[in-house]
């Protein structure tokens, strides 16, 4: 069977380094907020080009903490509106509502699946204070128009970079394009921990120091609490694992790019819509390779019967979730169409050429 994602095989690539790192952490007797975290934060900051990187417990917390810090700084106030793509993973929206901010859902572009930047201005009100952008599936969402809107309306731009570490726009890395960015190191992400992990990057000194404090009980000095914080820290062992794996992220992203190119050139079937990634839109790091087709379940069953595992990212849009009953009556036709039609093909640094060719062959024979 061709697995959608073979995590065991991916981590086997790093086995020696991971075992060495875990032994080092076990023997150190120090499991939180130590040298491993510092080392990884330095590596991540240098990788993205951002001045500050702060390890946190997961990607959702990274976004929650950025927004929470902006509230503490008075940049945001409860009830302010945050523009966010309607077709994102629900975490982006949870981070907003968890902070008593209001998500303003905006439709994506049907070709790139990223927020349609041309639709933003029509949604701006006096309460709009920020845009929470998502570089979905690994593709950069950025443009000159976005920068003009930011300046015109004095907006903060927060990047949800959970799916796109290593992507670039005109040579600048995601995570260093906006005012702050949240990363996820969930095991299946391009840079995955062996458990949960996340990070915030920013060039803003005040924001960085506040996120660090808020993630550690709102405390800078032990037992002195300036804020009502949370406990959201990146464990030493996960930081040590991530320091090993970040050294190969470019190489692994390159393998994803090669596979994506093979799929794009090899798959020729009118029933299948391939992803579109305009050259001027920036580098794509292919966290997911997402195709669309009218009868998605039929295609998924066909691939499954022929030994290819696929997944759906995502089957239900946030505004149709029970958790967001208050938005269930809203209508986002493109978002709903995307959720009905998308299917993610296997893509990962350990997928072999034979497996890629098998997937292409099967898709070309599909009727
Ligand atoms: C994975 C993901 C998150 C959340 O990350 P966790 O580490 O699972 O909390 C947020 N946004 C997007 C777009 C994601 O894909």
Describe this structure in words.
- It is a single chain.
- The protein is α/β, with parallel strands linked by helices and 367 residues long.
- Helix content is 38%, strand content 15%.
- It has twelve helices and 13 strands.
- It has helices spanning 7-12, 15-28, 35-48, 59-73, 90-98, 144-153, 205-214, 236-246, 249-266, 296-305, 333-341, 353-365; strands at residues 52-56, 81-85, 102-106, 128-134, 156-160, 168-169, 172-173, 180-184, 198-202, 219-221, 224-225, 289-292, 342-345.
- The chain is globular.
- The model has no long low-confidence stretch (mean pLDDT 97).
- Pyridoxal-5'-phosphate binds at residues 58-60, 88-89, 91-92, 134, 160, 162-163, 184, 186, 196, 198.
List keywords for this structure.
367 residues, binds pyridoxal-5'-phosphate, alpha/beta, 38% helix, single chain
Q: Summary?
A:
By secondary structure, the chain is α/β, with parallel strands linked by helices. Helix content is 38%, strand content 15%.
